[in-house]
Amino acid sequence: MKVLVIQQKMIGDVLTTSVLFKALRERYPNAQLDYLINSHTFPVVKNNPFIDNFIFFTPEAEKSKIALWSLAKSVKKEKYDVVMDVYSKLSSNLITALSGAKTKISYYKPYTSFLYHHNIKRSNKTDQACGLAIVNRLQLLEPLDIYIQSARPKIYLTTEELETSKQFLISNGINLDKPLIMISVLGSGPNKTYPFEYMAQVIDQIVATTDGQVLFNYIPKQEADAQAIFKLCKPETQNHIYLNLFGKSLREFLALTAHCHALIGNEGGAINMAKALNIKTFTIFSPWIDKDTWNIFEEKCVNESVHLKDYKPELYKEKREKDMKPQATELYQVFNPNLFTEKLQVFLKKLIAHG
């Protein structure tokens, strides 16, 4: 039996969907389980023992219809028995349609349902701690007679990666016996990034409460924005920030995060990765992102999150969060950190109490 799971685009999506593989392996121990993902997301699923092969959706396939067609034909040659299209967009629709698989599974959409043998309707609410993002993915397993209520993503770092990152931190003046906190200072775009002046206030509170050491999560091309947030912090806070100490690759970031006591900041891939490393998180959601879907494994003082809707529900009325996307900038200004100062303070005190 050969199974292909398709999940393109974002790191958080690829990591979350990876929970399917353990369940598939337990149900079909001798199956070939392959994963089609964007090439830049590979580091979060590298070394996953339940995945046999990776097929990469390259930047060329995104830009070129010829390259996409070539990818679809290469998938067809593999003669998969099952194709599970978690992405469910035009490119993955094409790949699945041409695959020749006897069983094609995806989410229900009225305009693509004819392409699939099983069209699963997403749930809108759940009482499961794993959150809707995982609950809805697990439902895709049901046509294969796999019924699971919860599963947790996991990132697999090597002993060498962990030891190298540990020595890197120590050699750069980090005391691993003191609180070490990674800050997700920037989101994947402006409409998913907490305003710089507000983020600086959050970092000021973190340092004042924990007397901890602070790392910023950013990539070199974001250095100017990271510097801008740093400069908005109080001078006494700046003394605790190791601005130039960051992972130069995604795997390096993961290995550094594995030694942190918590990751705090903008919702996105970094938060999901920290959770998959069993690192505590405090997430600041963008006003237009659906918290119910992505606040996976919410637990007081372990994985907490805040959303403007929690404090100003009247702004949303009967609107869905994604309907508010065009107003993200204005809504962010309303999302003053004073709204959640107390909640963050409880989280931080618990963090330093437990070490």
From TrEMBL:
<keyword id="KW-0328">Glycosyltransferase</keyword>
<dbReference type="GO" id="GO:0008713">
    <property type="term" value="F:ADP-heptose-lipopolysaccharide heptosyltransferase activity"/>
</dbReference>
<dbReference type="InterPro" id="IPR002201">
    <property type="entry name" value="Glyco_trans_9"/>
</dbReference>
<dbReference type="GO" id="GO:0005829">
    <property type="term" value="C:cytosol"/>
</dbReference>
<dbReference type="Pfam" id="PF01075">
    <property type="entry name" value="Glyco_transf_9"/>
</dbReference>
<dbReference type="GO" id="GO:0009244">
    <property type="term" value="P:lipopolysaccharide core region biosynthetic process"/>
</dbReference>
<protein>
    <submittedName>
        <fullName>Heptosyltransferase-2</fullName>
    </submittedName>
</protein>
<dbReference type="InterPro" id="IPR051199">
    <property type="entry name" value="LPS_LOS_Heptosyltrfase"/>
</dbReference>
<keyword id="KW-0808">Transferase</keyword>
